[in-house]
Design goal:
Blueprint lengths: L1 H25 L27 E2 L10 H11 L8 E6 L2 E7 L9 E2 L4 H14 L34 E2 L1 H12 L3 E2 L2 E2 L3 H8 L6
Parallel strand pairs: 1-3
Antiparallel strand pairs: 2-3, 4-5, 6-7
Length: about 200
Amino acid sequence: MIKFINENLKGLVYLCIIFFFLTACARVPRVNRYGLPQREYVYQEPEATDDGWEISSLRGEGVEEQKLHEMMHEILSGNSRYVHSILLIKNGKLIFEEYFFGYGRDTDHFLASVSKSVTSLIIGVAINKGYVPDVDTLAYEIFSDYYWDQFPDGTIQTDGGLYLRPRDMAKIGYMVLQKGQWRGRQIVSQEWIAESTQTYING
């Protein structure tokens, strides 16, 4: 009987160790291949995929590595708990890409209020193509993409419910900087970019 109790206790102890180990890992920015917290950082060039991004390196684009190493040390030390991803684009090339707290390149991130900017761009495209008449059209009536959150009644939440991969969000930001163009193709009209990025309300 005592042996049976001891075996059960041993199993319980093992389960507790595993639980606390997994809990600890979930609270650190990144773990290594052994499942232990990663504290040291070595820069690696982003991986080339077929998603449209041209890849380069920090050195290849003339970016000083020291400040980025300091930033990564700060994050891996656990001092920036709400940073999930960092991407750096220069000269139209992806040169820095890092993820933390279980997030990865193919993880859809919740964009919160940044969703409004994407809503604006889509409305601009829709108006230019004649799908909607003007800016007075209710935005939630024309969205059905599953990357958006929905309210219980099925209404699309266009003010803060969008999920995107960081690489895709970077494309949108870079496209806006290029006055609506992506890789030589005009996605959003220059007129809409100019109109939607000017200041309408001060304060």
